[in-house]
Amino acid sequence: MLLAKIIRFIASSRIDERKGFPQKAKDMSLKAGKATKRVAICLEMEWGHKRHLETYAGVQKYAEKAGWDCVTIPSAVRVLKPKSGAVPFDGILGRITEPLAQAAHKIKMPAVNVWLNSPAKNISSVLADFETSGKIAAQHLVGRGFKRFGYMGFLREKDSRIQIEGFREILKPLGFRFTTYRFPRAGLGGEGLGWERFLDGLEKWANSWQPPIGVLVSNDLYCRHLIET
Amino acid sequence: MLLAKIIRFIASSRIDERKGFPQKAKDMSLKAGKATKRVAICLEMEWGHKRHLETYAGVQKYAEKAGWDCVTIPSAVRVLKPKSGAVPFDGILGRITEPLAQAAHKIKMPAVNVWLNSPAKNISSVLADFETSGKIAAQHLVGRGFKRFGYMGFLREKDSRIQIEGFREILKPLGFRFTTYRFPRAGLGGEGLGWERFLDGLEKWANSWQPPIGVLVSNDLYCRHLIET
């Protein structure tokens, strides 16, 4: 199985172009864009996901060059809708929902969204390129000589929808088709209330195959479940 | 800052000593302990925590030698309290609560707990040794020449309580004292509803210091928050 992830800039951040936004209230005075920029990083890092931590690492790398002062905050909600007189930032980078995008626009705080499934429109976003990863996976499996294919990923989430498009874009012109197993993400965390249903669907899908088959799974954990089925 | 983690066997698993428990229903028949053992691994791996993934890797390493067939399942609840006629296992390893420990005992399924904060008693557990990590941290900070110390970690969780004991065990005989900042874990994930309160307490604590000070933080993410304060 192959899980490729290629990062593509959908729109570049304009944070460093802005000048003169209020600085850290307690120890800095506003001096026409000369003070250090304070940027809030809201990546839900309590989840140890590699993609969150590597986004964080990439931001820090850029921030060091740009001379930003980055502050890690659990959620963009706490920056854009704080409980009380919170310290203003010069910009925010995180998982930005539509109401948060509106809040950022209202207070003129530059915001960069890194959440693929965000319904927010008109916001700069930096997202993984799932179409290309779907294409690469298909090319890899075709190159390995497979003639039958499968795709397994989330239901109702953009990553799988876009990845399938890329997967199909390679396979269709070659005359290949593929079956899919798409499942709701909810119910597989915590107590795993959706586990039995997920497993039942997975077993049915795997039993319908005529091996050999080349399969793309959107996520390593679910790929593990498939291997164990 | 130092975050050390030393694994200690509190009690060893007895899973491989058991014989003759029903095997995978669909393709194996019960042959007096000769069939491959099926073990459920329930480590909440949807969180990408290093400690969960490395526990999983360690289990797989042992399983390969022992010839186990491991199945990754989101939660021990789904194994010990399944919705419907689930496939039985020969053993389970995971975050075992008291009701789950009782359920395992009732169906005579060997269970190994890896959750430090589990209230379950009379269960084999494999846990990180937080007392020793607290000692190592104190020794490290003393070795660096600090004379004032601080500890920051969770409120009402065993890891911090035990780590503080180890920290104190080294510092007290040397005549050193330390201040602590302990905070509830809840409210710092998701929307971060407890963020402002957490930050307020953190700033007050840091402002009370008389530097230089050597600080042990129980978790890298919260250490990052401290550095940024």
What does this molecule look like?
2 copies of one chain form a homodimer. The first copy, chain A, is α/β, with parallel strands linked by helices. Chain A folds into 2 domains: 7-128, Response regulator (Rossmann fold); 130-228, Response regulator (Rossmann fold), CATH 3.40.50.2300. Chain A has helices spanning 50-66, 77-80, 98-106, 130-143, 158-171, 195-208, 220-228; strands spanning 7-9, 38-42, 69-72, 91-94, 111-113, 124-128, 149-154, 178-183, 214-217. In chain A, helix 1 links the parallel strand 2 (38-42) and strand 3 (69-72). Mean pLDDT of chain A is 85; it is low at 1-32. Chain A is elongated. In chain A, the strands form 2 sheets. In chain A, strands 1-6-5-4-2-3 form a 6-stranded mixed β-sheet, with helices on both faces. In chain A, helix 4 (130-143) crosses helix 5 (158-171). Helices cover 35% and strands 17% of the residues of chain A. The longest helix of chain A has 17 residues, at 50-66. The interface between A and B is medium-sized, with 30 and 30 residues.
Task: Provide a short characterization of the protein structure.
Chain A has 229 residues and is of the alpha/beta class.
Features:
homodimer, 229 residues, alpha/beta, Rossmann fold, 2 domains, six-stranded mixed β-sheet, three-stranded parallel β-sheet, 7 helices, 9 strands
